[in-house]
DNA sequence: CTTGCCGGGAG
DNA sequence: CTCCCGGCAAG
């Protein structure tokens, strides 16, 4: 029903993972004495409690090669920068939790602080920012207000999860907390991982973010730029979010999150293919601004190779032993001139 | 693996 | 400029 329930739910699979590691040989599927089973239970319980109650659990540097992703700088029309993933390990504590770190895995586990923290849920819809105290409430809000599902009120496909985020408030400074809800920087406790400051504008997102906002086709109102990650408390959203330029689609079907590339939406309107283009000679340093500056990241030095001609060329026709019968181009290992396509 | 050939080096 | 080759990509 509520968040805590979900959290424990998500912890269970991970727990089983832990258990796999803890029991030396894979005797899990063998018959086990009830004693052993009890041991497992106990272990599980211990893990659970340690996960859910220890104030902060130290973690290895969060996923070594994981790029910071787009944390921050929400640029889309809907500017949700929902970043406060409960990444544990602020720099100042977590010293006495050494043993708990053994039980950790890469994925951050949604957890919440218990002391004087109040969990709220904030609508991320553009210009909305409604804050409710229950997930159900916010889902209903989104469903009815934004998604326009008035009739079948209780129909939910989980889509609402993408449109709100969980926020933590310090109860003694609620007013402050509310003011900091603006999607700028949640200076509250659960800030972004302290190791790397904020994102880094690693070129993959900067240009394409711009592109997005410019070329944004009138999107259907039911999909407020969710490509810019909206984080909720789901396991599959726990990893640092990634923006995929071009066209990406995600399928929120329960627990999987798939992103698929498609042809980059870039049409390079470069120099026309007329044979009478004159080279910029000498003095005139005139720039040609015609080409659009759109660029998709994965395209670096694409040399636009020719598809490869089909017919046999000198090499194949005459063979290596008759190399002197080849055309010169073939001898130079250039494009054949005798058997052109 | 083979084949076509681009990019680049040597002279 | 001619001549050659490394290495890549397509098959």
From TrEMBL:
Protein's UniProt keywords contain Transcription: yes
Key words of the record: DNA-binding, Metal-binding, Nucleus, Transcription, Transcription regulation, Zinc, Zinc-finger
Main location per the UniProt record: nucleus
Protein origin, superkingdom: Eukaryota
Signal sequence residues: none
Subcellular locations according to the entry: Nucleus
Cellular component per GO, a single term: nucleus
SMART domains documented for this protein: c-clamp
Keyword Transcription: yes
Domain annotation C2H2-type: ranges: 121-151
Region described as Disordered: 55-100, 183-205, 280-308
GO aspect biological process, one term: regulation of transcription by RNA polymerase II
GO function term, MF aspect, one: DNA-binding transcription factor activity
Protein name stated in the entry: Zinc finger protein 704
């Amino acid at each position: 029903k509520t968040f805590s329930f979900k959290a424990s739910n998500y912890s269970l699979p991970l727990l089983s993972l832990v258990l796999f590691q803890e029991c030396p040989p894979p005797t899990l599927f063998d018959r086990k004495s009830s004693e052993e089973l009890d041991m497992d239970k106990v272990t599980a319980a211990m893990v659970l409690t340690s996960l859910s109650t220890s104030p902060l659990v130290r973690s290895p540097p969060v996923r070594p090669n994981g790029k910071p992703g787009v944390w921050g700088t929400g640029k889309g029309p809907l500017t949700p920068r929902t970043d406060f993933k409960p990444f544990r390990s602020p720099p100042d504590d977590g010293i006495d939790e050494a043993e708990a770190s053994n039980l950790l895995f890469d994925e951050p586990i949604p957890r919440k602080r218990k002391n004087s923290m109040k969990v709220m849920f904030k609508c991320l819809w553009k210009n909305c920012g409604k804050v409710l105290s229950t997930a159900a409430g916010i889902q209903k809000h989104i469903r009815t207000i934004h998604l326009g599902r008035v009739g079948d009120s209780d129909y939910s496909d989980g889509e609402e999860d993408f449109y709100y985020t969980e926020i933590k408030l310090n109860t003694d400074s609620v007013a402050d907390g509310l003011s900091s809800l603006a999607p700028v920087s949640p200076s509250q406790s659960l800030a972004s991982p302290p190791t790397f400051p904020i994102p880094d504008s690693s070129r993959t997102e900067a240009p394409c973010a711009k592109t997005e906002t410019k070329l944004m086709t009138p999107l259907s109102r039911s999909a407020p730029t969710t490509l810019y990650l909206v984080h909720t408390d789901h396991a599959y959203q726990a990893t640092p979010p990634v923006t995929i330029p071009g066209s990406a689609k995600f399928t929120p079907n329960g627990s999987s999150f798939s992103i698929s590339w498609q042809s980059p939406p870039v049409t390079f309107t470069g120099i026309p293919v007329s044979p009478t283009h004159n080279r910029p000679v000498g003095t005139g340093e005139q720039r040609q601004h015609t080409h659009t500056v759109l660029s998709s990241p994965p395209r670096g030095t694409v040399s636009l190779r020719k598809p490869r001609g089909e017919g046999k060329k000198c090499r194949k026709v005459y063979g290596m032993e008759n190399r002197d019968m080849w055309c010169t181009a073939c001898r130079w290992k250039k494009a054949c001139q005798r058997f052109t396509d």
